[in-house]
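User: Before I run my own analysis I want an independent prediction to cross-check against. Here's the chain; please return only the structure tokens and, at the end, one sentence I can use as a sanity check.
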Amino acid sequence: MEFKAPNTLAEQIANYLAQQIMTGHIQPRERIHEARVATTLAVSRASVKEALYILERWHLVDITPRKGASASQLDAQHATELYDVYMHLLLMLADRLIDHWEGPDRITLLRKISKVTQCLNGNTSVLAVVEASFEVMDSCCEVVGNPYLTEALTNFKPAVSRAYYLSSERYQQDLERTEAFFRNLTKAVLERDKAAMAEQITRFADHQKRLIVEALSPDSCPQSPSPASA
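Assistant: Structure tokens:
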């Protein structure tokens, strides 16, 4: 997953560890040793500690007093809880977008949505589609201008990307539904139809949640990345 260009060393470390967690090289509940990471990356333990707090904010790491940090759990139940909250944040964003967007915003939003469509129709990875979708979300956040909502959605990006990564095979088979969702959602927003907007987001989010839960169910084939100690 790609993030905005980091401004601090701690953010660079957080990006590195986030990639390890999202791709499964650091497994759920696996301990992340500050000293080991500091040695591997040739950085200070203070920078690693700061990075772990960033990862905690991104819902990728749990920090327990006197026990340290470990990768957060991600099973069917946790994925359901994650996606339920994320869906409600998206509903809030879309509701406010309908209230706030003006003529000049239309071009920017349609350009971002067009990029998603190009990804869906091209030979690109699921994560490329997810990243393009996040760009649409970011543009919507700029139009709405609510810093608290923007922060909440931004902090959910890595955890949502992690869930998509683990269910990418199932998601890849369902890209037509994703294209239809963006087409219908765009129509609802441009027509300022809040009922249609809420229906599109709720139905699509419930479907995506089912895909992710199926992928994380115990009877699914688990991902087997090559181990890498942080």
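Sanity check: The first helix runs from residue 9 to 22.
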